[in-house]
């Protein structure tokens, strides 16, 4: 193998690894939320706060947000849960503190919730 083979291999690896590192966490969160929506237990959640993660995306540098909830489900004491979102400008007011949502939660990991459409 010549040096060009190693360079070409490194470029191919970089072309695969870079998008996976950037998009991977969001893809995994999306798949987890889809699973919770399909198989989770119903609950109601009230937004208690939100904060930026420090990461920004896209040309407009949209901030990634962590939205904190107090979740209530029948037969359980209230608990805290959070979701991570990269919201559009129109979605930010949607998640303002005090807003109530129907959610589903993973009974094995109640801190994992998915907002229902």
Automatic annotation (TrEMBL):
Q: Which UniProt keywords apply?
A: Membrane, Transmembrane, Transmembrane helix
TM spans, by residue?
6-28
Q: Does the keyword Transmembrane helix apply?
A: yes
What name goes with this protein? DUF3592 domain-containing protein
What organism does the UniProt record list as the source? Neoroseomonas eburnea
């Amino acid at each position: 193998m010549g040096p060009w083979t190693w360079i070409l291999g490194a470029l191919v690896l970089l072309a695969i690894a870079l998008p996976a590192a950037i998009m991977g966490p969001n893809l995994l969160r999306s798949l987890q939320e889809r699973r919770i929506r399909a198989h989770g237990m119903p609950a109601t959640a009230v937004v208690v706060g939100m904060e930026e993660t420090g990461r920004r995306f896209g040309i407009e540098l949209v901030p990634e947000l962590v939205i904190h909830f107090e979740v209530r489900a029948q037969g359980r004491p209230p608990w805290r849960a959070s979701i991570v979102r990269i919201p559009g400008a129109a979605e930010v007011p949607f998640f303002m503190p005090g807003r109530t949502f129907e959610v589903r939660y993973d009974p094995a990991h109640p801190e994992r919730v998915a907002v229902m459409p």
